[in-house]
Amino acid sequence: MERELLKKIMVLATVLLVQNSVEAQMYVSANSSVFASNEVVFIGQDLALNAATSTFYLRENAQLLQGSTSVGANKGVGSLSVFQKGSTNNFQYNYWCSPVGGTVGTAGNSPFGVTQLKDIDGLITFKEPTMLPLNNYNGTASPLAIAPFWINKLTASSDYSNWIQVGSSSSLNAGEGFTMKGTSGTNGFTVNGVQNNPGSQQRYDFRGKPNDGTISIPVAIAQFTLTGNPYPSAIDLSAFLLAENNCSGIAYFWEQDPTVNSHFIADYKGGYATFAPGDLGSSGVYVPATFYSYDGSGNEGTAGVNGATYERRFSPIGQGFLIDGIANGVVQMKNVYRVFVKETPPVESPSKMMSTAKAKSATGFMTAMQAVSGFDYATVSIAPTPQIRFNTLMNNQGVRQLALALIPEATDGVDRAMDALSSGDNVQSDVYFVIDGSEFIINAVNFDIDKKIAIGFRNDKPANYKITVKEMVNFTGANALYLHDKVKDTYYDIVNNFHELDLPTGENNSQFEITFKSNGNLGVDEAAEENFVIFQNNPTKNVVISNPLLMDLDTFGLYDVTGKLIFVKKDLGVNASYQFSTSGLGDGIYIVKLVTKDKGVVGKKVIIKN
């Protein structure tokens, strides 16, 4: 009888969700359970998991939405169970935020500890994992063993030394994010067609009282706080960032090079990717991290790259991220930000939600989705925010990507939730937009063909930079972009070429700017540029250079789009044409750079498809 009643409650709640007028409470008694698979369950008020044997299972992208507007009111000593998995091995961090707290009987959200993570051994069954001692740094997949040494939190701080080690204690309040490294090895046990760990993808069973309601998260001026999605459902991250005015409206996501297998800081390669929502009607702008390695004193090490690009508007269950404060006080996570969005692909991985790279030519609108707020997502365009992305290779090590967003509502000053400050990774060399004297990696402006955008460089020792336009996304307002050296009054084409700079030690925030027009004083040999024809012959897998005026060619260089040299040919002499094989190269955009004997420079981007 009681199970039948619960079934009726679930159906009723789902029906009322569509009508957006639910007024209901769910009560699960002893030895009873609710099982949801690949669907949303909506409860208008609180959930009572009355006894230790009262359980609520979310499986295969199922999510729980709750509609109350007060602080958390869920109660009982029963548990909600939801699977979620990371994307790292035992050497790299994931940033998490738990959807559940401790099973305390009184109403309200309760603190979480990693001892609530379980090792999955069935659809609804589990085993207790091993909590390793603090001097054992390597978690394992089979059997599951967690290394509490790497469990840390950060609250309103800008100093690396202020990370607080949590370990295995149950001291993470609702809404507090935490770091945790993954596990080594694999675990082939399969539930719902998904392995517990096929390698660097450890799956956990989060069990506890589900978080609900308004959750206050401390912030402070110019300080970072690690938080995240604290609910057993997705959230609209853009809605949260736009509404909570005590933060900058920007979210930062940790990314780490998965090829580095070391616990030593000197070997780390990682950084923070950045998301700016813009407004509720857009998909926002995301810039990947710059990977550098560091030594124990924070100095740069050897070669780095940059991270991947993800859609970030919706944060899945368990996703952690940093926010920075612009006022002392709190921001609040609320049920109104909760929304039913399935992960893509559906592999229960918070760092992979919406992980398909942006479709540059996407058009149309989002499909309607169930949201506590009642917001109509069918009004949101799926077209990417118009933007220009710049890649700068710094000292042949890290690649800093900058995004210039073209948004009609933006100003030339700092726009909250549009312009993104650099996360302050303390790199020795960096490039950034200069807005009101500060360093930004996303700059939103209202497009004007005559606009000039200040760009700055900072390096602790002499440094080399190679800057180019990586891509123009959903933007056709201009075909040309230049780096303008205001001291030399020279314009360098950075659409078809990269420009190389060697700068002395120091900060240079006034010499250079990005423009859409030049005054004709180009930093290239215009005659040379007009008299070479450069193209990629993909059927024959060759770059072809036509030299009809028989100019004396000194060097041919092929670079990737970040400015890294792929190969170079020297002392080429005078020929009517040249061919260079590209058969061993991956598909992508490359830059051809020719230098003539009389120092003329010609650049051209080619698309190689093998």
Q: What keyword list fits this structure?
A:
eleven-stranded mixed β-sheet, Immunoglobulin-like, elongated, seven-stranded mixed β-sheet, 41% strand, 610 residues, signal, disordered N terminus, Secre_tail, mainly beta
Please provide a brief summary of the model.
This is Secretion system C-terminal sorting domain-containing protein. The chain has 610 residues and is mainly beta.
Show the helix and strand layout:
Blueprint: H1 2-19, E1 26-28, E2 33-37, E3 40-43, E4 47-49, E5 55-59, E6 63-66, E7 79-85, E8 93-96, E9 100-101, E10 117-120, E11 126-127, E12 130-131, E13 139-140, E14 145-146, E15 152-153, E16 164-165, E17 178-181, E18 183-184, E19 187-191, E20 194-197, E21 203-210, E22 215-219, E23 224-228, E24 234-236, H2 237-243, E25 247-256, E26 269-276, E27 285-287, E28 292-293, E29 314-315, E30 320-325, E31 329-333, E32 338-339, E33 387-394, E34 398-406, E35 420-421, E36 429-435, E37 438-445, E38 452-459, E39 463-473, E40 482-485, E41 490-493, E42 499-503, E43 506-515, H3 526-530, E44 533-537, E45 542-546, E46 553-560, E47 565-573, E48 577-581, E49 588-596, E50 601-608
Parallel strand pairs: 1-4, 2-5, 3-6, 5-7, 12-14, 13-18, 34-37
Antiparallel strand pairs: 7-21, 8-17, 9-21, 10-11, 10-21, 15-16, 19-20, 22-31, 23-30, 24-29, 24-32, 25-26, 25-30, 26-27, 26-28, 33-34, 33-39, 35-37, 36-37, 36-38, 38-43, 39-42, 40-41, 40-43, 44-45, 45-48, 46-47, 46-49, 49-50
Protein name: Secretion system C-terminal sorting domain-containing protein
Keywords: Signal
Domain Secretion system C-terminal sorting: 538-608
